[in-house]
């Protein structure tokens, strides 16, 4: 740990929040001398204080410990670059249109890599007027089911969350060409072209 870098980061983040050393210290129930010591690089926060400091300053603990914040390049909001993250513990679904550090249940998640659908995971797509009727014969049991389906075009995404023992059928408003992504709880992320 580089106390100088950590101190400079804490100083900059505190200033961004328009807080004094005393205000930050009061929120953490410590002395403002401790904050001053950190910011001058004469020491680092105790490990037990990092979660609270992280929450107050609005950054991850990892960023505090590294002494720097990595900013993503601005890539715009093109939904075709959408990344999906699914927590293996709680099945929480998260998305990002660019690089992101995402964690859930205490573990960092990697974005899922979509495979082109195969005959075991093919969704039925039927145009009905201005909608797409989506259905599947995929089993929908607690141990093996499709957890979500997402219809992605260049500027929009529609997500339908699915649960075990539901019938796998619903409708999306037809938006033109795009991809239909879906996640099988046992086999991962798949896509079909629309």
UniProtKB/TrEMBL annotation:
Domain HTH cro/C1-type intervals: 10-64
Pfam family name, one: HTH_3
UniProt KW DNA-binding keyword: yes
SUPFAM superfamilies xref list: lambda repressor-like DNA-binding domains (SSF47413), Superoxide reductase-like (SSF49367)
Keywords of the record: DNA-binding
DNA-binding is among the record's keywords: yes
Gene3D superfamilies: lambda repressor-like DNA-binding domains, SOR catalytic domain
Superkingdom of this protein's organism: Bacteria
Protein name: HTH cro/C1-type domain-containing protein
Organism classification: Bacteria, Bacillati, Bacillota, Negativicutes, Selenomonadales
